[in-house]
């Protein structure tokens, strides 16, 4: 008889979902640590992968029951029931696609990048896996989702960050904007969500999440600002329609490991994993 059938603890261990993390940077590392501690009753951290293998190995070394460090995206998907995508590159779309084609559930942190892959959403609808998109660094998606069935006639998002949050951005470099020379709050961009995610792919996951929550009929206007005096990343949503109006403001502490990432985004990813596995769901 297999060992786990005799031993209830081993049986419980075997019933846990295997979770693998792709991208062991600021978000992936914190989610992996949380899975191996507070979420260990639900998931087994089975595998880690990063294009920078030293990073994946370094993370594994800090975890009590280390997961296997694998050497490709395909390998990781084979080793997991639930995949966490937390990469800072165009591979995000490929990871989501491969996970869904394999019938796995995937938590995608790079929500902005997914908008460029229109085929992923029909694929997710017919996959036996699930596509989980966390609210990330913004409050109010619950209300937007509810409001979308009555119609949202006006929708704006204003995102504001300190200069460090935009360093290395190709759009800003091309426009010749010297972030360090700015003395007051300055609008860097105003336009559609599609253009916002194209020009600010590492900063604007929030815009993509807002657009997806508000649904296809709401027209989202995005404004991106740099604020030299700001200490945190802020997002303001304004929505109007037959339901009334919604105003939210979220002031995010910056993640210590990556100034482009808000700490709330990490917490939101962890909470989405808890919600996926739990029987009680609070909020829309
Ligand atoms: N949903 C949200 O609200 C939200 C908020 C912040 C960040 N994000 C997004 O989450 C993602 C991760 O953010 P982060 O702060 O952890 O980034 P990070 O730069 O700290 O880490 C990214 C990691 O991905 C690895 N990587 C890159 N390409 C890879 C590939 N092809 N295969 C495997 N690993 C690869 C890098 O080596 C790095 O270790 C980014 O796309 C970011 O834009 C989302």
Report on this structure:
- This protein has a 6-stranded parallel β-sheet with strand order 3-2-1-4-5-6, sandwiched between helices. A 5-stranded mixed β-sheet has the order 8-9-7-10-11. Strands 12-13 form a two-stranded antiparallel sheet.
- It is an alpha/beta fold.
- The protein folds into 2 domains: 3-133, 3-Layer(aba) Sandwich (Rossmann fold), CATH 3.40.50.720; 141-260, Dihydrodipicolinate Reductase, domain 2, CATH 3.30.360.
- The protein contains 13 helices and 13 strands.
- The structure holds nicotinamide-adenine-dinucleotide.
- Nicotinamide-adenine-dinucleotide binds next to α3, α12 and β13.
Q: What's the topology here?
A:
Elements lengths: L2 H4 L1 H8 L1 E6 L3 H11 L6 E7 L3 H9 L6 E2 L3 H6 L3 E4 L5 H11 L3 E4 L2 H4 L5 H7 L4 E2 L8 H8 L5 E8 L8 H5 L11 E7 H7 L5 H10 L5 E7 L6 E9 L2 E9 L1 E2 L2 E5 H15 L7
Parallel strand pairs: 1-2, 1-4, 2-3, 4-5, 5-6, 7-9
Antiparallel strand pairs: 7-10, 8-9, 10-11, 12-13
Helix pairs in contact: 3-13, 9-12, 11-12
The structure holds nicotinamide-adenine-dinucleotide (NAD).
